[in-house]
Design brief:
Blueprint: H1 2-20, H2 22-31, E1 44-47, H3 52-64, E2 71-73, H4 91-101, E3 109-111, H5 118-131, E4 136-142, H6 146-158, E5 163-169, H7 183-203
Parallel strand pairs: 1-2, 1-4, 2-3, 4-5
Helix pairs in contact: 3-4, 5-6
Length: 205
């Protein structure tokens, strides 16, 4: 009986501690996904597909600060919601439109209009850098996406002698470090952990 009581007490104490320190524990699920590099000047800046508003805004800040003059927009996925207005456009088009809206000239924007996953985009960018003798790039994605971007892009491009600097854009809909307070944050963190598992299972990282 005494042993049972000790086990019950230990479980209750453990649950109480988990609840008391729930915020640092939950925050870990986001901080573990965020891996960024210090900014450096680069030959080009790459904006990965999806989230063209937030990622585009971050890219403009970086470009206006003088770290890169050329922006490469990837993304072959269509923006389905815009079909309601009979508009057929791709994620790369949306990102490029956001750059233009904030004063980046067409001559400084490259639309590749391809790539439907991080893995595909890494192959696309590796090929583009090889063709145009680019040796250093800044990659902009969502903050919660940055660890996976590091894992996918850096090994691939390092083999070609290309240096990769990864930067994350804040999500305008929720605070990444308090993601559990918003449904969009819950979905984003959950999706990213699932994608990390999928990439580990399929590609080994």
């Amino acid at each position: 009986m005494r042993r049972v009581l000790i086990i019950i007490f230990s479980l209750v104490l453990l649950l109480a501690l988990l609840y008391a320190f729930r915020e640092p524990e939950l925050r870990w699920f986001a901080t573990e996904l965020i891996v960024e590099d210090p900014l450096q000047k680069a030959d080009a800046l790459v904006i990965l597909s999806g989230g063209g508003f937030d990622r585009g805004n971050e890219a403009v800040k970086i470009m206006q600060s003088g770290y890169a003059s050329k922006a490469i927009c990837t993304g072959g996925n269509p923006v389905i919601e815009l079909k309601v207005f009979n508009i057929d456009t791709l994620e790369s088009d949306m990102t490029a439109a956001n750059l233009r809206r904030q004063g980046i000239p067409d001559s400084n924007i490259v639309e590749l209009r391809n790539g439907t996953s991080t893995k595909e985009e890494s192959l696309l960018i590796a090929d583009y850098c090889h063709q145009h003798a680019i040796k250093k790039i800044i990659i902009v994605s969502s903050k919660l996406h940055t660890r996976r971007v590091n894992e996918v892009f850096k090994p691939k491009l390092k083999k070609q002698g290309i240096e990769v600097i990864v930067r994350g854009a804040h999500n305008s809909q929720f605070d990444e470090l308090q993601w559990w307070r918003d449904e969009n944050g819950l979905i984003a963190v959950n999706n990213e952990w699932l994608k990390r598992f999928y990439y580990w299972w399929k590609y080994g990282f």
